[in-house]
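Throughout this chapter, every protein is written as a compact record of paired, labelled lines. An example of such a record is reproduced below:
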Amino acid sequence: MYVQCAQVLQYPRFAEKLGHGLAGLFANDRIEAVVSPAMGGLIIGQEVARALPEPAGSIGGGTPALFVERDASGNMTMRRGFQLKPGQRVLVIEDVWTTGGSTLEAMNVVEEAGGCVVAAGALIDRSGGKIEFPVEAQALLDLPIASYEPEDCPLCREGSAAVKPGSRFVRSA
């Protein structure tokens, strides 16, 4: 099973409501910036940042919504002139957690940039609660979905090819 949050996030009013719901989980954490891994976390990260209270000392634009992305070598990095202030309190937002890998990579980039990750959130946690993050972590929906290595996958054994639209990992038959 593959979960494609872009199908719901393409509708701005739904994205806004989901952003408000996710932001509400972190309302007491004094968030000063939201950072999301591209591509999956971009829209929901923007909506969560928009729903959060404006940080003290802000320039009037609300909570900043930044993103990290992969460079040519495949490493997650902060580009496009984005910067964090030393110690800035950051919430990392993702669309779906499967292994938590992209969220952990984003956390590392934030820390390297001087920010302080205080929490992580996702629309959906499909890990069955197996992911352990070094900070408070909450998802709007826990949706345990089995994940398999190719050699253990019942569908792969039957000759099926995995279809993962939008995933950064592409498997071919």
Notes: The longest strand covers residues 116-125. The chain has a mean pLDDT of 88.
